[in-house]
Design goal:
With 63 residues, the protein is an all-alpha fold. It has 2 helices and no strands. It has one domain.
Length: 63
Amino acid sequence: MENTPVSIAVCNQKGGVGKSTFTVLLASHLHYTLQRDVLVVDCDYPLIVPKNRISNLLNLILR
């Protein structure tokens, strides 16, 4: 039971609430204090990029 993998998700719809900071601190605590191996995956991406791509595509189509 000692090596059982555990998944922890840190999420919130609002930006700027400290999700990344909390995640790094939690991962550090799990690794350095509890001697656990930790993998952090950041799935957050800026939504501006897809909106710009859609806008550019629409501009090309409407020309």
